[in-house]
Design goal:
Arc Repressor Mutant, subunit A, 15% strand, globular, 125 residues
Length: 125
């Protein structure tokens, strides 16, 4: 995969966002910065970048895919009222992360995980 100027711009913009946008939402963000960008380019590049592990794709059944510029292993909260996604650090998350390390005992490696908690975001409480 070639890291083009457009792909670099997509990564940079996505890293600035904490909203975990859908491809359509992200297209609107990019269009304000680069008016001539096409929606097809945004969709294609989000897929290429997520496949390459340079951004994260949140695939949760019943929702549109969301994208995250933070590729570190972390958790998300899906608001059951507004449908938004936010980064989430539940109590005991260090214990959960340590339990994932136990998978190594099974001679398996975890490259990535996607744990989504459901609840209410700060705005909807």
């Amino acid at each position: 995969m070639v890291l083009t100027t457009q792909r670099k711009a997509i990564i940079e913009e996505l890293k600035k966002l904490k909203t975990h946008p859908t491809a359509d939402q992200f297209y609107e963000v990019m269009r304000r910065k680069t008016p001539k960008i096409s929606i097809a380019s945004v969709y294609r590049n989000l897929e290429v970048l997520s496949s390459a592990g340079m951004i994260a794709k949140l695939e949760v059944s019943g929702t549109q895919n969301r994208f995250d510029g933070d590729i570190s292993m972390h958790y998300h909260l899906k608001c059951s009222k507004c449908g938004g996604f936010v980064d989430f650090s539940p109590k005991g998350s260090k214990t959960l992360s340590k339990s994932l390390d136990k998978v190594k005992e099974l001679n398996m490696n975890i490259d990535n995980f996607n744990i989504v908690f459901n609840g209410l975001c700060d705005k909807c409480k």
